[in-house]
Specification:
Structural class: alpha+beta
Number of helices: 8
Largest sheet: 11 strands, mixed
């Protein structure tokens, strides 16, 4: 069992070196920017999950965003425009489950998921024998991976397009491999109709080198040679390392670019691996609505309406919009009438400075 490491410990360590880290030179207004927050009261674990999701969406998210009790959804929509916010990730909790809504601002759509199960970052690190604690990986956005989605289905086609717009696009021809530090996986499973969400760090290590030689020449730490008479015995000893350190033969690639780390040179063969950071989520899509948490229901996993019911709902929504527009026009007319009456009363007032003596 690995050592339990808290999320706050990671953030404090990053905060100390924040001034030393280079700023990303990108046009953030052209990239997806997010708000991750909760509405109403949620449990302590759900609040930690909110922090974990903020880390997933970094660097293009409001990490220090705080929610007060008096805040509602309209408050966040009002400030989203000036701040170039494009998406909301909203957590809420009921007696039965924790729900996650992902909205495209300002016109929608909104995807509502029920979180069947979830594991926090600290829980994943505690279960790992050698936990990978992220350090500077959040300075670059995560790479998106979609798996097992059926594009022939309407809801899956909308899901894939929505997830692709949630993360910055990758220019395959001009991408710098050193900026690919993390990846996010959405894996759909037909059995149970759920989506598995996973968050990994990408590790690249030189391959084709004897592990004992790598221990001495490549890695920074010095191995314990006290039980060997000669260094050649250490290099030839195959029992120095455990079976868990054996490289995956299918993960070896020839690097098109030189990466950070000793031995990761261009055209050399390196082993690419994934180390889970967390959190883990098991999501079930409940519904898709046209607007930001309101509007016409485009898809519902529990309700299947007939064409007649769908048309009746559309007519009711259209009538509601017309009534709202009518009331707004009446209000504008009343405001204008009051303004004219006020001007007229001021012109008749003898104490007015503009009156003729």
């Amino acid at each position: 069992m690995g050592k339990r490491i808290s999320y706050d410990f990671v953030m404090k360590r990053e905060k100390k070196t924040k001034k030393q880290l280079p700023k990303l030179k990108v046009n953030e207004s052209n990239l997806p920017n997010t708000f991750v927050f909760h509405l109403n009261e949620i449990s302590k674990n759900a609040r930690i999950l909110e922090k974990n999701l903020k880390y997933v969406m970094e660097p293009y998210t409001a990490t220090r965003l705080k929610v007060k009790r008096r805040n509602n959804l309209k408050d966040f929509i009002a400030v989203s425009g000036p701040l170039n916010i494009t998406h909301f990730l909203i957590l809420s909790e009921t007696m039965n489950s924790v729900n996650l809504r992902i909205s495209r601002v300002p016109r929608g759509p909104t995807l509502t998921f029920a979180i069947k199960e979830y594991s926090l970052n600290s829980e994943i690190w505690a279960l790992s024998k050698r936990p990978f604690v992220p350090y500077k990986e959040h300075l670059n956005s995560a790479l998106l991976i979609l798996n097992n989605f059926d594009r022939s289905k309407f809801e899956h086609k909308l899901l894939t397009a929505f997830f692709q717009n949630l993360f910055p696009p990758v220019d395959v021809k001009n991408v710098r491999l050193k900026n690919l530090k993390r990846c996010v996986l959405f894996d759909y499973h037909k059995d149970g109709d759920v989506i598995y969400f996973r968050h990994y760090a990408i590790s690249v290590k030189p391959s084709g080198i004897n592990r004992s030689v790598k221990k001495v020449a490549v890695q920074s730490r010095v191995p314990d040679l006290s039980r060997f008479n000669d260094i050649s015995n250490f290099i030839q000893d195959s029992g120095v390392f455990s079976d868990s350190e054996v490289e995956d033969e299918d993960a070896k690639v020839a690097l098109p670019q030189t990466l950070h780390g000793t031995g990761n040179q261009k055209s050399e063969v390196s082993a690419v691996g994934l180390k889970e950071i967390g959190p883990r989520l098991t999501l079930h899509l409940l519904k898709i609505v046209q607007g930001v948490s309101e509007g016409d229901v485009l898809y519902h996993s529990l309700q299947h309406k007939s064409e007649e019911e769908t048309q009746r709902i559309k007519r009711r929504l259209a009538e509601k919009k017309l009534l709202k527009a009518k009331r707004r026009r009446e209000q504008e007319r009343n405001v204008e009438l009051k303004r004219k009456q006020k001007l007229a009363s001021q012109s008749k007032d003898p104490s007015n400075n503009d009156a003729i003596v």
